[in-house]
Amino acid sequence: MLNSIVLGAIFLYILLMAIPFMPAIEIGLALMLMLGSKGALLVYLCTLAALSISFIVGRTIPPRLVYRLLKWLHLDKASTLVQQLEPLNQQERLKFLNDKMPAKAAPLLLNYRYLAIAAALNLPGNALIGGGGGISLVVGMSKIVPFHAFILLLAIAIAPVPLWFYLFGG
């Protein structure tokens, strides 16, 4: 019985963590508290899987679909940005974003984009900016971070809390 409850909670955790604006980390913390150090690795791997799924979904969503959704929501500046970024490759996107962003923020956010993503993923209350699922989705949609680099970034960025639970047993 307990195994099926844990399995259901893990499936729910992966599903909720992959969805933007869902504060699913609380489920992960509850699982780690319930399972102790044994559950830390499981929650870590599930978080890695969920955020990878969000990234892949973001990478595969057609920009025209995003453009139409943003237009329908009357987010004209965002829809125009998506339309302008669509034909560009990674280097052209970085240059375009560097030109469009405020002069003081652009070098910091674009040159240290991996650090900025890791910080955003670990911000308390990041559900307000999309949560882990939303951040991963947008990073995938941006196409300025390759998948293998994102997986490595995730592996490091999400490790502290599960590692603490693993070492100290929750």
From TrEMBL:
Membrane-spanning segments: 12-35, 41-61, 114-139, 145-168
Keywords: Membrane, Transmembrane, Transmembrane helix
Name of the featured protein: Membrane protein YqaA, SNARE-associated domain
The organism's taxonomic lineage, starting at the top: Bacteria, Pseudomonadati, Pseudomonadota, Gammaproteobacteria, Oceanospirillales
